[in-house]
């Protein structure tokens, strides 16, 4: 495969990473576009996943504010990016070190720092909108082990909206397709508009929500998921929310 084919295959995951780092689908996608422009302008462009993410990381560093100016939790810190690269994107530590431009030992230290941030972050209430009982139980267990309180569950859009209005959770975990054929995305749009809470989508087809279109989600967990991926994405959504307050 050539550069164009490889880039097309990896583009959804570049968007996923940039969106999670910035907390914005619009800003994350803009950084990805800048990274692609830089890649194309290079006489000897990267042609594999590691090279694409290394190029994107350079664009992220250029776009981020001065870390010295950040107060409190920094959702885009190198420790957060190290955790997202390994837990969400599945890079081994050695590749994450290449992407971040540091040694593998430092990546290990950054990941420990990010894990410590998880224990310091505020515990909160979580609502799970998922029509597969085993998936709902598994993800609820993972979230509970992080110290959060799963306050309710739903399997349809109307059920989710009604229960979230009553329970007022601080985070929503949402499947895209629900039991009665209703849309989890529609439910999430209503709930976020009314409650102003972050949403983490759970889907077997993440590529369909990473096309670079308006209104696409910021945070995505792909099925089947690993516990470390759930922990990394959920904590990133909550830290972004805390940093914005």
Automatic annotation (TrEMBL):
<protein>
    <submittedName>
        <fullName>Response regulator</fullName>
    </submittedName>
</protein>
<dbReference type="InterPro" id="IPR053866">
    <property type="entry name" value="PhyR_sigma2"/>
</dbReference>
<feature type="domain" description="Response regulatory">
    <location>
        <begin position="125"/>
        <end position="238"/>
    </location>
</feature>
<dbReference type="Pfam" id="PF00072">
    <property type="entry name" value="Response_reg"/>
</dbReference>
<dbReference type="GO" id="GO:0000160">
    <property type="term" value="P:phosphorelay signal transduction system"/>
</dbReference>
<dbReference type="InterPro" id="IPR036388">
    <property type="entry name" value="WH-like_DNA-bd_sf"/>
</dbReference>
<dbReference type="InterPro" id="IPR053867">
    <property type="entry name" value="PhyR_sigma4"/>
</dbReference>
<dbReference type="InterPro" id="IPR050595">
    <property type="entry name" value="Bact_response_regulator"/>
</dbReference>
<dbReference type="InterPro" id="IPR001789">
    <property type="entry name" value="Sig_transdc_resp-reg_receiver"/>
</dbReference>
<feature type="modified residue" description="4-aspartylphosphate">
    <location>
        <position position="175"/>
    </location>
</feature>
<keyword id="KW-0597">Phosphoprotein</keyword>
<dbReference type="Pfam" id="PF22029">
    <property type="entry name" value="PhyR_sigma2"/>
</dbReference>
<dbReference type="Pfam" id="PF22233">
    <property type="entry name" value="PhyR_sigma-like"/>
</dbReference>
<dbReference type="InterPro" id="IPR011006">
    <property type="entry name" value="CheY-like_superfamily"/>
</dbReference>
């Amino acid at each position: 495969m050539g550069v164009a084919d490889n880039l097309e295959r990896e583009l959804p995951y570049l968007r996923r990473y940039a969106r999670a780092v910035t907390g914005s689908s619009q800003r994350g996608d803009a950084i990805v576009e800048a990274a692609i422009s830089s890649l194309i302008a290079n006489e000897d462009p990267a042609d594999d996943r590691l090279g694409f993410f290394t190029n994107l990381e350079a664009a992220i560093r250029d776009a981020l504010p001065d870390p010295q100016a950040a107060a409190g939790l920094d959702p885009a810190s190198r420790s957060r990016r190290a955790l997202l690269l390994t837990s969400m994107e599945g890079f081994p530590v050695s590749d994450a070190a290449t992407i971040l431009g540091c040694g593998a030992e430092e990546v290990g230290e950054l990941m420990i720092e990010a894990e410590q941030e998880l224990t310091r972050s505020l515990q909160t209430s979580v609502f799970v909108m998922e029509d597969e009982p085993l998936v709902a139980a598994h993800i609820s267990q993972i979230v509970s082990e992080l110290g959060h309180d799963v306050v309710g569950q739903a399997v349809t859009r109307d059920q989710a909206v009604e229960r979230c209005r009553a329970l007022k959770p601080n985070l929503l975990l949402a499947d895209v397709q629900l039991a009665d054929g209703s849309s989890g995305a529609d439910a999430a749009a209503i709930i976020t508009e009314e409650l102003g809470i972050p949403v983490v989508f759970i889907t077997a087809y993440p590529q369909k929500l990473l096309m670079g279109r308006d209104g696409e989600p910021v945070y995505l967990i792909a099925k089947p998921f690993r516990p470390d991926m759930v922990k990394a994405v959920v904590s990133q959504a909550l830290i972004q929310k805390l940093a914005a307050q």
